[in-house]
């Protein structure tokens, strides 16, 4: 990767993605960042890893962890110096969010008139819940059942499968 002295701008010309004026190649940057993201997940482990985003424009991996010890942060910075933008304050780990997501009884919610159309972990440590009905009612139910620092809510239309059947899609 080249030293990023600016934010790269890649332009779609209608047929292909053109490289930044500085000559940076988005695919080359992505392959390096993908390897760094994999290393972050491995080093942080289930106990601390929450999620990450690849930022080609700044040649960084934005990484969220939950209470990782300083040794983990130091190891990551030693493996890929200057690549990570680390947020070590995520409220939950990815493994905690997945366990929670799979424990939610969506049919019980439907019987209460709450239609959850999407559900899945966000990179920053929250479970995103897409609701096709009253968001305030869904939020009140979730906060009564669980901690109020676990979820974010959005309006979400049902996703269609085979044109007929609705299904809940992890985000």
Report on the structure:
By secondary structure, the protein is α/β, with parallel strands linked by helices. It is built from five helices and ten strands. It has helices at residues 26-48, 70-79, 94-103, 106-111, 135-145, and strands spanning 11-12, 17-18, 49-55, 60-65, 84-87, 116-121, 127-131, 151-155, 159-161, 165-167. A hairpin with a 5-residue loop joins β6 and β7 (127-131). α1 (26-48) packs antiparallel against α2 (70-79). The longest helix is centred in the first third of the chain and has 23 residues, at 26-48. The two termini are 30 Å apart. The model is unreliable at 162-167 (pLDDT under 50).
Give the gist of this structure.
This protein is α/β, with parallel strands linked by helices and 171 residues long. 35% of the residues lie in helices and 25% in strands.
How many individual domains? Answer: 2
What's the alpha carbon Rg, rounded to whole Å? Answer: 19 Å
Structural class: alpha/beta
Give the strand tally: 10
Helix/strand layout:
Elements: E1 11-12, E2 17-18, H1 26-48, E3 49-55, E4 60-65, H2 70-79, E5 84-87, H3 94-103, H4 106-111, E6 116-121, E7 127-131, H5 135-145, E8 151-155, E9 159-161, E10 165-167
Parallel strand pairs: 4-5, 7-8
Antiparallel strand pairs: 1-2, 3-4, 6-7, 9-10
Helix pairs in contact: 1-2
């Amino acid at each position: 990767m080249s030293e990023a002295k600016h934010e790269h701008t890649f332009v779609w010309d209608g047929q292909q993605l053109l490289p930044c004026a500085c000559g940076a190649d988005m695919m080359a940057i992505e392959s390096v960042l993908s390897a760094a993201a994999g290393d972050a997940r491995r080093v942080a482990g289930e106990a601390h890893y929450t999620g990450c985003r690849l930022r080609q424009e700044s040649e960084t991996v934005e990484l969220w962890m939950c209470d990782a010890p300083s040794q983990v942060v130091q190891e990551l910075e030693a493996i890929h110096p200057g690549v990570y933008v680390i947020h070590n304050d995520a409220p939950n780990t990815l493994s905690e969010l997945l366990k929670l997501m799979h424990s939610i009884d969506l049919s019980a919610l439907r019987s209460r008139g709450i239609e959850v159309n999407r559900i899945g972990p966000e990179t920053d440590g929250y479970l995103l819940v897409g609701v096709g009905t009253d968001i305030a009612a869904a939020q009140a139910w979730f906060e009564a059942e669980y901690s109020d620092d676990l979820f974010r809510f959005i309006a979400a239309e049902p996703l269609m499968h085979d044109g007929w059947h609705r299904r809940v899609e992890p985000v």
